[in-house]
Amino acid sequence: MKNRLKVLRAERNWSQADLAERLEVSRQSVNAIETGKFDPSLPLAFRLARLFETTIEAIFTDEH
Amino acid sequence: MNCMKNPAVRRYLARFSAAMVLYAAFLVLSIWLFVHHHPTGPVAWLLAFLPALAIILQIAAFGMYLSEEKDEFQRNLQVQALLWGIGATLSVTVTWGFLESFVQLRHMDLILVYPLYCGLSGLALGIQQMRYR
Does B3 contact A at CB distance below 8 Å? Predict the structure, then answer.
């Protein structure tokens, strides 16, 4: 699944490790989601959306 | 999150280490009693079962880790490695079994199945970790 995580992180000047810390997951998990290798569950997608103060659709698109 | 900061990993390592200590203690105790006192009957069965009990506790510790791990990606990696480990172990042992029956390949002790599974699932986890680095 394509996503805008890299852009959203860059806007806040967060590293993958910073985002991982805020989500309470590993940096490897953030990298896997960001590169589209792993699709997060709905609860994790909601946590990401809340963290970036936006909607799930604004972060993820269903294109591959 | 660093893996050592992960409470589920820390609890798993503590439980796994405790089970390993128990395994070593039970193994030494069982061997010593079998060598020096030659137990028979139910006591012999119980003593023979004790090291296996410690291994069962190790397996239970891993099951508890999987149910406690909150990082769904890490849980997914571990489950995939577990499935690869089980599949590879079954493939090796069933192949070995047929070779043993038909071409008299050396007998494989069942006690080797668990370390074989640990090695193969560990290898699978290493490959998975490299894929997602």
Answer: yes
